[in-house]
What does this fold into?
Amino acid sequence: MDTQYDFEQEMERPIVYVRQVNADDLPDDVREQVGELETLYAVHNEEGERLALVADRKMAFVLARQNDLDPVTVH
It folds into this structure.
């Protein structure tokens, strides 16, 4: 393969971080909205700001990709 490719032309999608959140760790007003869920998944930007809070991990990844973001898991 002798074809050169200009990787700089590729536009990188911003990375967002998906992490598991215990409902008990959320503020009272948010806990009231999650009902009986015990575990949720948060999507955070690179600065740590929470962008979204969803019911399951798969939904968090789909949400990120639908918004042209590149999700990765935080342990």
